[in-house]
Design brief:
two-stranded antiparallel ribbon; 7 helices; mainly alpha
Length: 244
């Protein structure tokens, strides 16, 4: 006897190594708004800083201000959505892990680089000479060019921070602008000392490695976002507001 039972359609296997979808447009919309939007925006900001070799190191915090593990770019409540995304796109785990490790590595290098500058006898010599010249060259006491900072240790910390971050010029609204823009080349000459030159090179290497990790992770997130948008007919941006 002929079997007239209709054959069930065969579904395609998982794409890009991801698990079989068990989510729909509403979940995708939430992922876009709470995870992809903030993650990609944070990574693009990181890329801009890294391309100009500004590590955003802050000596009073001992950390990087704008470079951070990916989860820190998300609203706190959105991190559960990130965990959910990783269940379906496990390949992202390695990219996020690499990004976060490189961020931590760069932070450690900046801390050590900053400490080496402050401990350098040559840095002390240049700092003291600039301090002595400032009243005649710029007017006012040396400390008046450091805003809310009040001690010599803090002044040295700020100058060393600028060296770590490769700051060549400060905008006029910075309290340190006139001082730094006048004397920055003399301070940067300190980094030619062999011990500091090697520290600077190591920091630059870490920054480049993080930049590569940022580009890879941002590219993967954009690709997944685009595929989800087309697959579920969900626009990447639901609506444009005045704040955009």
């Amino acid at each position: 006897m002929q079997d007239n039972t209709e054959e069930m359609p065969v579904k395609a296997g998982p794409k890009n190594g991801r698990k079989k979808p068990t989510y729909g447009p509403n979940i995708v919309r939430a992922w876009f708004d709470t995870v992809f939007h903030y993650a990609i925006r944070g990574l693009e900001q990181e890329r801009r800083f890294l391309e100009r070799r500004d590590w955003t190191y802050r000596f009073h915090l001992g950390s990087l201000e704008y470079l951070a593990p990916l989860a820190e770019h998300l609203p706190g409540s959105a991190r559960e959505n990130l965990d959910q995304i990783l269940l379906f796109f496990p390949a992202l785990n390695a990219l996020i892990g690499d990004h976060d490790r490189q961020t931590e590595r760069l932070a450690r290098e900046c801390v050590e680089f900053h400490a080496a500058i402050v401990a350098s006898p040559r840095f002390d010599e240049v700092f003291d000479s600039v301090e002595a010249e400032t009243p005649a060259a710029l007017g006012g006491e040396f400390g008046s060019h450091f805003g809310g900072l009040s001690t010599k240790e803090q002044f040295k910390g700020r100058v060393a921070e600028y060296l770590v971050n490769n700051v060549r010029e400060n905008p006029d609204f910075y309290s340190t602008a006139r001082l730094w823009n006048q004397f920055h080349e003399r301070f940067f000459s300190v980094l030619n000392e062999p011990g500091l030159a090697s520290r600077r090179y190591a920091t630059d290497e870490c920054g480049q490695a993080l930049l590569e990790a940022v580009v890879s992770l941002a590219g993967a997130l954009k690709t997944i976002r685009s595929e989800l948008s087309l697959e579920f007919d969900v626009p990447i941006v639901a609506e444009v507001t005045s704040s955009d």
